[in-house]
Design brief:
The structure holds two protein chains of two kinds. Chain A contains six helices and ten strands; from the N terminus they run βββαββαβαααβαβββ. Chain A has one domain: P-loop containing nucleotide triphosphate hydrolases (Rossmann fold), CATH 3.40.50. By secondary structure, chain A is of the alpha/beta class. The longest helix of chain A is centred in the C-terminal third of the chain and has 17 residues. Chain B is elongated and about 105 Å long. Chain B has two domains: 161 residues, no CATH class; 139 residues, no CATH class. In chain B, helix 8 packs antiparallel against helix 10. Chain B is an alpha+beta fold. Chain B contains eleven helices and ten strands. In chain B, 50% of the residues lie in helices and 18% in strands. Classes of the chains: A alpha/beta, B alpha+beta. The interface between A and B is medium-sized, with 33 and 25 residues.
């Protein structure tokens, strides 16, 4: 895979809850392709289906119909094609949360190396990789600190380091800058853009933050479960 | 990376406090087991002490512990001549209260014939009774020491030695004295009472009797045959050692034993519920973190390991703390607390099973957690 190759290919994906009069269509026949190196924003009002789409791409929500390919591998075609979706997430997808969701009982470095530990990396290599990432994200000096003692910006950078640790090709971010001031939000987006280029990764971000719109390659609008504008 | 230990270290104070609380609960459980065992051991101590094979008692009674028994003292000579009898000794039991150094002692007086069965088996300190009168051997729990003197009835007795673990089923510590002294203690009236009896024209003393004659049989002798033969005598009854022990457990201490046993059962149930609740609550508090772990790709075994390991560490710590505490305080209890390694091991097994079962509830909840709950703050 190289820059420009399609990493996320969503074809006619729909998701509905309930049936009959109680049926709610969260997504309706959505098609989306994201290429390696692209940084994309998913926009739309509350209830438009942004998080639903993100969860489907992240393999944590079953689509009602459609087809999903990740990094060239078909993963959903009417049903999940792999039984080990957690392993798939571990190997191919990195998550960045609005509230960073670092494990409070681990240090910054341990939060990062945990992913590598789960992926089967040797402990020393995992620690080395975690340290490299934290240094790269300029929080290496806080490696031994628990999340409760990190500032919002530091915690978010540690969360980004965790998302990138196992070199995933797809990074899904849900409001990654919501807890940051505008200067730090710009810095985080610059960082994600840089990583997308360097690691040939696709980054899909759900955001409402207009101040960072100019940092995206594409802005994709959803309304009532449909892609309405790009 | 061991997530369970990392999480424990993170909230160490709280975890230690929880373990300590559980440890206190385990202390109560172990104390109750010990009290139960102690009650049984105390009840049997006085029966086992003479190492008898057969007890000869008053006809129609189950004496001398379950019922009063009174037989003539010369019964011993008659029994001693029976075929198969190696030795026989008359024995007497009574409970007295005496003052010693401004405190009241409740004593279980055992009168025996020195040189015959019925006396203390092992002297822990000092020596056995060496004179015909006015010496005694006391259980250490009386608080008496060799050389002390104590007034019992109309005479002052000198403590010659000490024994351990000699008491009646009520927990009163025992003192051994010669049968002659014990009978005198039983029948001698206070001087004023004696004068009144003489004035009334009654005898000066009550008639003397003993509670039982204990028999040790010759090697190879048939205890059942001897017991059956003795029972044929209309004025006596005979009980084997096993029958005597069964009578004590089935009648004398039965209600107390069942009471404590029932309370122990309730206590174990409460402990199991408390342990389950603690473990379940610990898991519920971590559901968001478990969702994050599942989202970033942690396999089920990592999540299960986190819950089960913490549950087992909690249970093991509580058990350990409980064991240490009860070993430290067991001698402070007014009655004996007897803990056998088997009891402690069984409790460990019960805690292990409860921890695993409680973890099962937590694991079930954790497995149901949707990783998507980690998203969206």
């Amino acid at each position: 895979m190289a820059i420009g190759d399609i990493l996320v290919d969503v074809q006619a994906v729909a998701k509905h809850y309930g049936d009959g009069e109680t049926r709610v269509d969260a997504l309706r026949q959505v098609d989306l392709q994201v290429r390696a190196g692209e940084v994309i924003a998913l926009l739309g009002p509350s209830g438009s289906g942004k998080t639903t789409l993100l969860n489907i791409i992240g393999c944590i929500l079953d689509p009602s119909s459609g087809r999903v390919m990740l990094d060239g591998e078909p993963v959903f075609d009417g049903k999940w094609l792999r039984s080990d979706l957690r392993r798939l997430r571990l190997d191919k997808i990195g998550f960045i949360f609005q509230a960073h969701n670092l494990l409070p009982f681990l240090t910054a470095a341990e939060n990062v190396s945990l992913v590598l530990d789960l992926a089967g990396w040797p402990a020393d290599k995992g620690k080395e990789r975690a340290r490299e990432l934290l240094d790269y994200l300029e929080v290496g000096h806080r490696a031994g600190v628990k999340p409760a003692l990190l500032s919002g910006g530091e915690a978010q950078r540690v969360a980004i380091a965790r998302a990138l640790a196992n070199r995933p090709r797809i990074i899904l971010a849900d409001e990654p800058t919501a807890a940051l001031d505008s200067k730090r939000a710009q810095l985080v987006m610059d960082l994600l853009r840089k990583l997308a280029t360097e690691q040939e990764a696709s980054i899909l971000t759900v955001t409402h933050d207009e101040k960072i719109f100019d940092r995206f390659d594409r802005l994709i609008h959803l309304r009532d479960g449909r892609l309405v504008d790009e | 990376m061991n997530l369970a230990l990392k999480d424990i270290r993170h909230g160490l104070f709280r975890f230690v406090l929880t373990c300590f609380g559980l440890g206190l609960l385990m202390t109560v459980v172990l104390a109750m087991i010990g009290i139960y065992n102690g009650l049984v051991a105390d009840a049997l101590a006085v029966v086992k002490a003479p190492a008898a094979d057969v007890w000869v008692v008053e006809a129609g009674t189950k004496g001398p512990f379950a019922e009063a028994s009174s037989i003539p003292v010369d019964t011993r000579d008659t029994v001693a001549r029976m075929p198969g009898v190696a030795e026989a000794g008359a024995i007497n039991y009574q409970t007295v209260e005496a003052s010693f150094q401004d405190r009241t002692l409740r004593l279980y007086v055992i009168g025996y014939e020195p040189g015959r069965p019925g006396g203390p088996q092992t002297i822990a300190e000092g020596r056995g009774i060496g004179t015909s009168h006015f010496e005694l051997v006391a259980d250490r729990k009386t608080g008496l020491v060799p050389g002390d003197t104590i007034r019992l009835g109309r005479h002052r007795f000198t403590v010659a030695g000490l024994v351990d673990g000699a008491m009646n089923s009520g927990g009163d510590p025992a003192v051994y004295m010669t049968l002659a002294d014990a009978m005198a203690l039983q029948i001698e009236l206070a001087p004023a009472d004696q004068r009144v009896q003489v004035a009334r024209g009654a005898g000066a003393v009550k008639s003397a009797s003993v509670a039982a004659v204990i028999v040790r049989v010759m090697p190879g002798a048939d205890v059942d045959l001897l017991t059956a033969t003795l029972r044929q005598w209309k004025h006596l009854a005979a009980l084997s050692q096993a029958e005597q022990e069964n009578i004590l457990l089935a009648s004398v201490v039965d209600r107390a034993r069942r009471q404590i046993g029932l309370f122990l059962g309730i206590l174990l149930t409460v402990s199991a519920v408390v342990i389950a609740l603690i473990i379940y609550t610990m898991t519920m508090e971590k559901l968001k973190q478990i969702a994050t772990l599942k989202l970033i790709g942690a396999p089920d075994r990592s999540v299960v390991g986190l819950i089960v390991q913490q549950a087992l560490i909690l249970g093991a710590s509580g058990w350990g703390i409980g064991l240490v505490l009860i070993l430290l305080v067991k001698d402070v209890f007014p009655r004996r607390v007897v803990l056998e390694p088997f009891n402690v091991a069984v409790l460990a097994g019960i805690i292990f099973v409860v921890c695993i079962a409680a973890s099962g509830l937590g694991v079930r909840a954790a497995m149901k957690v949707d990783p998507a709950t980690a998203l969206g703050g």
